[in-house]
Amino acid sequence: MVRKICEVCSTNESNYKCPTCLLPFCSVACSRAHKQTLCEPAHPHENSGPKESVVEEDEDEDRVILSENVLRSIGSNEDIKRLVSQKRFRDALLRVDGAHDRRKALELLMTDPEFVVLADLLLEQINFSDP
């Protein structure tokens, strides 16, 4: 698996992506530095017009941009924090993020009952309802 380097500091391995332009970055400090720039959406059509539940032929067809409030809510959930503090969960999430076929990697991970619990907690935090 190829690891990406932070495109802000060009020093550390990136573990995150800008939700707007998908630029890889490694830390809160690099995220804040990047937010000072005017980045362009990675897929300009995503931010134009109302959001529909259309399946696109794209590797990120299920991408959802979460608000700062929702991200804070996820970050403050004790059950989620407990699960993602485990190295095996962090490693598994990094494998999914770095996989060529993310959907397949996630489906494989969903065979782990404990990961299903984490997924359910995350979906609950973002108020996801199956259409």
UniProtKB/TrEMBL annotation:
GO terms for molecular function: zinc ion binding. It comes from Rhodosorus marinus. GO terms for cellular component: nucleus; pre-snoRNP complex. Keywords: Metal-binding, Zinc, Zinc-finger. Residues 6-39 form the HIT-type domain. This is HIT-type domain-containing protein. Gene3D superfamilies: 3.30.60.190. The keyword Zinc applies. Coiled coil: none annotated. Residues 40-61 are annotated as: Disordered. One of its GO terms (biological process) is snoRNA localization. The lineage of its organism: Eukaryota, Rhodophyta, Stylonematophyceae, Stylonematales, Stylonemataceae. The keyword Membrane does not apply.
